[in-house]
Amino acid sequence: MKKTLTIIAIVFINFFVNAQNSTGLSEINKEDLIKNVRILASPDFDGRLPGSEGYNKAAQFVADKFYELGLWYAGDEQFFQYLNVEYNKIESPAVFKTIVDGNTIDYKIGKDFVLRGFTGSNSFTLPVVFCGYGISRPDLHHDDYTGINVTNKIVMVFKQNPKWKNDDKDWGTNYPREKSLVAKKHGAKGILFLSLPNDEKPQPLIGSVMHGEGEQPVDFPQLHISLDAANELLSKTGFTISDCQTKIDEKKKPLSMNLTTKAQIEVHASYEKNARTMNVVAMINGKDEKLQEEYVIIGAHLDHVGSQAGILFPGANDNASGSAAVLEIAEAFIKGGIEPKRSVIFVLFASEEQGLNGSKHFVQSWKKGYDKIIAMINLDCVGYGDSIQVGNGKSVPILWDIANQIDETSFNSMVERTWNGGGADATPFHEKGVPCLYFVTTNSYDHLHLPTDTFETLNPVLYEKVVKLAHLTALEIANGDYEREEIIE
Length: 489
Description:
This protein has 489 residues and is of the alpha/beta class. Helices cover 30% and strands 25% of the residues. The chain contains twelve helices and 18 strands. The chain has helices at residues 2-20, 30-40, 53-69, 176-185, 227-234, 241-251, 316-335, 357-365, 397-410, 427-431, 460-479, 484-488, and strands at 72-73, 80-100, 103-106, 113-115, 122-130, 136-137, 142-143, 154-158, 190-194, 222-225, 257-284, 295-301, 307-308, 311-312, 343-349, 373-379, 388-391, 436-441. The strands form three sheets. Strands 1, 2, 3, 4, 5, 8, 9, 10, 11, 12, 15, 16, 17 and 18 form a 14-stranded mixed β-sheet that branches. The chain has a two-stranded antiparallel sheet with strand order 6-7. It has a two-stranded antiparallel sheet with strand order 13-14. Strand 13 (307-308) and strand 14 (311-312) form a beta hairpin. The longest helix has 20 residues, at 316-335. The radius of gyration is 24 Å and the shape is elongated. The N and C termini lie close together (11 Å).
């Protein structure tokens, strides 16, 4: 406690000293933030899916901004740090129809169904079979494929796993790719995913490339369909999809059945296993001879989930907001004439949505010693909501207290809730023992991974506050007179 109070006292001293000098704070404004979000979330960048031309254009936009500011190169080639990721381009047309008693219902993409980011391609009209949670785990005494023939049929399953367990053991990951490969192994030709209907708020039809491990089934379409469409397919059974979940959950046993209805599916996708993409990295060299070999990293993920068959997922809050924030903080350092004691690295990560690939690559490629990173500041979904959260505070309470004290002095917008373990792109750093803070807003996810995540939905006043708070926190850490050991204790 004594050490914590000492650190906070230093924060107040440094904060008021900095207040008399330039903090660059006047360079951060909501107009510039929204302007850059609007650009990054525009159709020109096509949802910023890594591997795509749209993402490459976004990365070049950021690199050009870094160049204009006069930042130092810090990538493999100038500002770019390259890595390979899976990439799946989904083109028009995308067709999903149900056929019941010879009557066809035509569904609209984005409203009644979406495609999984790693859907395969094919075109067919086939019978549909309901297979519960789509789990085949005889070792856990649950197999939704026992006693049901799915060969040359379309399987309909719940996207999420059961909330209950057998033998008190977890079901494993069961990501959509895993469930798709299980269905394909049993002879199915495609899969329809459903949100859990009995949840208080069933998951909406989101765009997603979080797909899990395994080989890509390139000829196996994967759709996420509405509960209304599922009920149409179930209409000859006497059950609703809610009834099905209730019966399975109550008995903890499969309820698989042929539906005597059909679905028509047409999907066109082009898959690359190793598409080149990039992080965008720049830096300011520290001016203190002793501390310049220590680093503060300020990062956000640049990517989102792209587009599919004419439907754009703009990703304004997630995470054009964090990306624009990093640009604005970099500008505040440069145009504010700030010469930090420690070196500051600005990084826009690729492929967070696919599984933190960009930040993992950055951490794995780091050669200067993880103990030289004094702090990592992560900004993710900071433009929409009603107050500020600073995560990972339970892991690094001294850093959290620094942010909290600055907020109490200047913004009064930060809530007490925090967590440990990093979170999102802070996670790979946290796992290497790097102190991290994760800036986000509360109630930030109403438009998460939806076509409605546009710049018009953002809260500019709050957005400006959270970016200013992150900037002042990073500035305090970059110039603070304390040892790394004090931060991590």
